[in-house]
Specification:
By secondary structure, this protein is of the alpha+beta class. The chain has four helices and three strands; from the N terminus they run βααββαα. The protein has a single domain, classed as YefM-like fold (3-Layer(aba) Sandwich), CATH 3.40.1620. Helix content is 37%, strand content 19%. The chain is rod-shaped, with a radius of gyration of 26 Å.
Length: 78
């Protein structure tokens, strides 16, 4: 991960922000000491792609809509 001093970051802020938005994170340092890490924000498309991320990892039983039916009926009939 690249590291830039504050002066360089201020001078080239627009270009660095564009790189970060494309996924290239970087560090801003002061006197050679890392101060902050700049990371891209999640885009709207990234959150939309999460639908179905557990596909194939979870199994839903065929009788899902009838699970616990007898216990529920017993609770209300008592």
């Amino acid at each position: 991960m690249k590291q830039y001093n504050i002066h360089t970051a201020k001078t080239h802020l627009s270009a660095l922000v564009e790189k970060a938005a494309e996924g290239e994170a970087f560090i801003i340092a002061k006197a050679g000491k890392p101060m902050v890490k700049v990371l891209p924000c999640l885009s709207l498309n990234a959150t939309q792609n999460r639908i179905g991320f557990l596909k194939g990892q979870i199994a839903i039983p065929a009788d899902f809509d009838r699970m616990g039916q007898s216990e529920i009926a017993e609770a209300f009939e008592s």
